[in-house]
Amino acid sequence: MIWKSSKVERRRQVATFVVLTIASFLIAVGYLTFVNWGGLYPAGVTGLAMLLQRIAQHLVNIAGGTWVVPFSPINLALNVIPVWIGFRFIGWRFTLWSLYVIFMTGFFMDILPVKVLTSFISEAELARLSADPFLCSLFGGIIFGFAMSICLRWNATTGGTDFIAIYLSEQKGRETWSLILAINAAILLAGGFTFGWSGSLYSIIYQFVTLQVVHLMYRTYQYQTLLIVTSEPKRICEAIYRVSHHGATVMRGTGGYSQKPTSVIYSVVAADDTPHIYTLCKKIDKDAFINTISTSRVIGRFYLRPRD
Hints:
Structural class: alpha+beta
Order of helices and strands: HHHHHHHHHHHEHEEHE
Number of domains: 2
Number of helices: 13
Largest sheet: 4 strands, antiparallel
Strand content: 5-15%
Number of strands: 4
Helix content: 55-70%
Shape: elongated
């Protein structure tokens, strides 16, 4: 049994390695194409690293140098404090995988040739994209949001302020991506005085699109209230606990039309668990009536799966 468990764990680690490598590649492609074309500044640590790289490259070019300033060392150096927060407050495995994403993103950004990435795009189309920062902010935000959601679903993050978002979400028991967006927007607006308003405002759109994609794809800190009318309350309560590790409250009721006694189950679960719970409820009681209500916040004891 131990051997089987370790075999399953090894497969899971290999799958995580492959998925996070692909996500890192997508992040790097998005940065090298749409972010650069639109002159965008991703906020947070990554955006600061890109900004410092551009400044350093500009100074090298002025001095007559021909070498390219690498992105990886700058990005890794700036992520020291966020990584420490991850180790200290979130979990070592989560942080190690996140560190892998940070490293691979920088690695891909340093080695991927932009000309090869854009070889399938005509020069006219490329010029049109470069002249349309709004379009770049939309496509860039979608790519980064998709890759970021993949990382989060596989128990990792892209680094920087994402560590802070995860930490605050676990402490507060709700999503804090909107708070991170507000902080990043404030930073970008402040940067508008120095680097120009156009790039800052389009970068805020980029951030907004990114977080909307994350909100749609990553639902760990989103909650839903279930109201289930059923004749099998005990079995459905057991199914809810088996899937979500959450309890339920059973209330006795009477059918308004049939006047027959029935049971109403009340439970709050993570949004990720609801599809599985729906399936089990219908298998147990095909006549069960299920009402789902979005829940903005839960105060009290609420189980969150440990990351490590």
